[in-house]
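Sequence in, structure out.
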Amino acid sequence: MSGQPAALPLLQMALRVEQDIFVIRQRGREVAAVVGLEHQDQVRIATALSEVARDLLRTTGGADVSFHVDTAADGRFHLRADLAPMSPLPDGRYEPQSGAVSRLVDTLSVSAVEGVTVVRMSRRVPANAPTPTLERLAEFRAELGRTAPASALDELTVQNGQLISALDEVRSQRDELAVLNEELAETNRGVLALYNQLTEELEETNRGVVALYAELDEKSAQLRAASESKSRFLANVSHELRAPVTAIIGLGRLLTDSASDPLTDEQGRQVDLIRSSAADLLNLVNELLDLAKAESGRIEPELAEVDLRPVFGQLRGTLRALATRPEVELVVEEPSGPAVLRTDEVLLGQVLRNLLHNGLKFTERGEVRLRASHHGDRWQFEVSDTGPGIAPELRDRIFEEFYQIPGATRVGGTGLGLPYARRLVTLLGGSLELTSTPGEGSTFTVSLPVGGA
């Protein structure tokens, strides 16, 4: 098949009762497998199908489900699943109960097909998969027709196996972190104990899922516990690392001191490299500790009347040294007239400094500009740049911890600055939003109430 997609679906199913949700999940995974999706993508689309099916069964009484293979505008093949509700969707729209559903598939939308409203999702087929010709699609249909759905218990067993596999991957990643520094051996034993505790909690959740799959409140409580455990882990690691890293920086400074024995040029270069690496590590440790404090609620804003003009002047002075590219101009526009709001001056300075520093790192030419404006009962702070911009599908991900945008303009960093800035803005009772045009630049907008949080 090299042009239009085949009109005949690969498989059709009916969603009428709770049992059908397990069958749809299983068959969705089987369809993804025969089409050529990788294992992780099979699990993702199967999970998205089960979540959407559960929503439609609860709100519309069921749906008719069909699977297709399409050719997109970019020439890539996509596996598409259509769920046609038994009754009209409320307000003609669909919002998944779980916010993670849209991240499990490439597209999720409500469309009208021949006068029928359907919830449609799709996932790209890998480029190295066999081309789904008409003959190949006929083989797929025959293969799917020969298999019978498994029981709900069998499907739950498969889900548990997938969860265990994910946990094993987490364990492997944390073990790799332990190998990076032998000084973390004691902390790593604590991490292992914490991991075992999380594993026990997840296993308990799995046993509960077999008996009462619909009890999502218990899962939510355990996810909150996992988040708290992660915050404790970050705080413990950061605290244990600060002392030895600070000692390394101090020893490096002593070695290069004029009162010490002179070093050769090569020795001096190596000591400078050690000090630079230790400083980078200390910066990462401090960011981890700040993020852990924000997540655990240990940062309490100290509200006071703040005049923005001195704050902007200080930002201009401290950040001017970072604008090392002659092609990039740092512009800080001081507010005209009275510019006072009730907030925490230190936390506000950290947020604006973080956004300006981020813009200077990623902007190769043009300008990075800070301006403030008063709108009713709120102040808005805009940090704009003329950098590469951010694609629409990445604008939410940049606020995830440790995520950095891939590409040629990627520079050093930890991926913690923007998540930390958004948490601080939330503590101050405001919001942090992003608008961006790829190839033209980005604008981060901080909105804070005049009277404080």
